[in-house]
Design a protein that fits this description.
The chain is mainly beta. 8% of the residues lie in helices and 35% in strands. The chain starts with 9 loop residues before the first strand and ends in a 7-residue tail after the last strand.
Length: 118
């Protein structure tokens, strides 16, 4: 399947730490094509409706919560936030987050139409 991009790609450069690298995307979608551009570092990623939740995301072993969705080295996936398009009608921005447990990487988020895949 092809990707139907509906906005500009945002690049995050996450590193190991307690605070995720957060990007603010002016979009009306909760669905993103996500790419981890490192050949050896795992990234943990998420899509959120507010900044606080995005900044609080971590990697699974960092705290008692589940952390972000794991994205293997050189892996890409379609990722949807756990909030619906009705909620998007009331807000201007969506927040994407990425973090690593060790090392650094580049993670690219491209907003897509809901239901599209790579």
């Amino acid at each position: 399947m092809s990707i139907t991009a509906i906005g500009n790609t945002i690049r995050l450069a996450p590193a190991a730490g307690v605070t995720a690298n957060v990007g603010n995307v002016a979009t009306k979608t909760n669905t993103f094509h996500v790419l981890n551009a490192n050949s050896s570092v795992y990234a943990y990623v998420g899509v959120f409706s507010n900044y606080a939740a995005a900044a609080a995301m971590d990697y699974p072993s960092a705290s008692g919560d589940g952390g972000g969705i794991p994205l293997a080295p050189n892996e890409s996936m379609t990722l949807s936030g756990n909030f619906g398009t009705q909620q998007l009608a009331d807000q201007t921005n969506v927040y994407v987050a990425a973090i690593t447990a060790a090392g650094t990487t580049s993670v690219f988020f491209t907003p897509t139409l809901p239901g599209t895949s790579s």
